[in-house]
Write a structure and sequence with these properties.
By secondary structure, the protein is of the alpha+beta class. It is built from 2 helices and 3 strands. A 3-stranded antiparallel beta sheet has the order 1-2-3. The chain starts with a helix and ends with a helix.
Length: 100
């Protein structure tokens, strides 16, 4: 196998793994929303540079090179990566709309 083909093959595996990870995260968000372990996204959020605090969705630290979303929750401030926030918001809306 040529170097170029091997590189493309590895890249394809990495892309497949990241898509699989996104699907896994989506399933976790759905489960946590259903179980009440993750609140529904509602209201306004602020975005700013990451502070190193953990993301409420994926639980990884949000580095200063990443965008952090901040939402005022009941008693606490909820923090999420930009991409995690988008997924969380989408699933919250889907759940809210399906319960109407």
């Amino acid at each position: 196998m040529s170097c170029e083909l091997r590189r493309r093959s590895r890249l394809g595996v990495m892309i497949d793994k990241s898509l699989g990870a996104a699907d896994d995260l989506r399933r976790q968000v759905r489960a946590r929303l259903s179980e009440g372990r993750l609140p529904f996204v509602d209201g306004v959020s602020k975005s700013h540079r990451g502070t190193g605090r953990p993301c409420i969705v994926c639980r990884r630290a949000i580095d200063p090179t990443e965008v952090e979303r901040e939402l005022d929750g009941v008693v606490v401030v909820l923090i999420a990566h930009e991409a995690c926030y988008a997924l969380w918001r989408e699933e919250s809306k889907t759940r809210r709309d399906s319960s109407i």
